[in-house]
């Protein structure tokens, strides 16, 4: 009898666990235009490279921090709102991080190694997206919600000199 009750409890708790996939909203409280992305490369090695995502937005509530982050091609970036002649545009800049490793001090006296930084663990990307899809996180009240955008058009790459 105790085994039966224990088994039922284990099954109940395992089925009620949290989902690792975020819930997507069908209709956000704002309108989105045609999303575009553009790869960019700096003129020098130090300037780096990345992808700029632009999302035209209409009927956005007055809260400035409503749109928070964009998830695109395995990366996450903060969203900034820009006022342009043709309306508001939410932009997210996904910068490719340098693969250079920082200098590490190795010394027999461990006090000499104080400035060394531990390695950063890569967070698991919360969505399965194709190359022309992105997800935008936004606040509605005090809850974070997610909206998927499909058909992101890719512009010609921009190369700075």
Topology:
Blueprint: H1 2-15, E1 24-25, E2 31-32, E3 36-41, E4 49-58, E5 67-72, E6 75-84, E7 87-96, E8 133-140, E9 143-150, E10 153-154, E11 158-159
Instruction: Find the CATH topology of the domain at 23-97 and 126-152.
Output: Immunoglobulin-like
List the helices and strands in order. Answer: HEEEEEEEEEEE
Mean pLDDT: 78
CATH architectural type of the domain at 23-97 and 126-152: Sandwich
Q: Shape, please? A: extended
Q: Please write the CATH class name of the domain at 23-97 and 126-152.
A: Mainly Beta
Low-confidence stretches are: 15-20
The percentage of residues in β strands lies in 35-45%
Number of strands: 11
Main sheet summary:
11 strands, mixed
The gyration radius over C-alpha positions equals 22 Å
List keywords for this structure.
single chain, 161 residues, mainly beta, Immunoglobulin-like, 11 strands, 9% helix
Brief digest:
The chain has 161 residues and is mainly beta.
Notes on the protein architecture:
- By secondary structure, the protein is mainly β.
- It has a domain at 23-97 and 126-152: Immunoglobulin-like, CATH 2.60.40.
- Helix content is 9%, strand content 41%.
- It has 1 helix and 11 strands, in the order H-E-E-E-E-E-E-E-E-E-E-E.
- It has one helix at residues 2-15, and strands at 24-25, 31-32, 36-41, 49-58, 67-72, 75-84, 87-96, 133-140, 143-150, 153-154, 158-159.
- Strands 1, 2, 3, 4, 5, 6, 7, 8, 9, 10 and 11 form an 11-stranded mixed beta sheet that branches.
- A hairpin with a 7-residue loop joins strand 3 (36-41) and strand 4.
- The protein is extended and about 60 Å long.
- It starts with a helix and ends with a strand.
